[in-house]
Amino acid sequence: MNSTLMLDFERKDELEIGSLFKGQGREAQKAGMKIANTFKRPVLNRTEKDKGAYSEIIFHLKEK
User: Fold this and answer.
1) Are the beta carbons of 36 and 60 closer than 8 angstroms?
2) For 11-25, b where at least 16 C-beta lie within 10 A, e where not — what string?
3) How does pLDDT run across 6-19, given as a tens digit for each residue?
4) CA distances from 40 to 43, 53, 56, 60 (A)
5) Going by C-beta distance under 8 Å and a sequence separation of 6 or more, which residues neighbour residue 4?
6) Residue 30: what pLDDT?
7) Model confidence over 18-62: pLDDT tens digits?
8) Do the beta carbons of residue 39 and residue 57 sit within 8 Å?
9) What local confidence, expressed as pLDDT, does residue 19 receive?
């Protein structure tokens, strides 16, 4: 499988919101949105070898 394809879909990493390679500076935070709510969700079923528990945070955004 080509490293640029996943499940026969072309990767479009550059379109990802908040992608890590864009950095964390002001320039990378230009969506014009504000955080309305945050939700902490435990991740229970993991496929990785590391079975350590963790949570992910989901942000509900609204326009400024």
Assistant:
1) yes
2) eeeeeeeeeeeeeee
3) 578 888 877 777 66
4) 10, 13, 6, 11
5) 10, 11
6) 72
7) 666 666 666 656 777 888 999 999 887 777 677 777 888 888 988
8) yes
9) 66
Phi, psi of 34 (to 5 degrees): -130, 155
Are the CB atoms for 43 and 54 separated by under 8 Å? yes
Amino acid in position 4:
T
Predicted confidence (pLDDT) at residue 2 exceeds the cutoff of 80: no
- Structure confidence at residue 33 (pLDDT): 80
Cβ(10)–Cβ(4) below 8 Å: yes
Q: How many CB atoms lie within 10 A of CB 28?
A: 14
Instruction: Please report the beta strands in the chain, taking only residues with DSSP state E, as ranges in sequence order.
Output: 5-6, 9-10, 33-43, 54-63
Tokens of 56: 């992910």
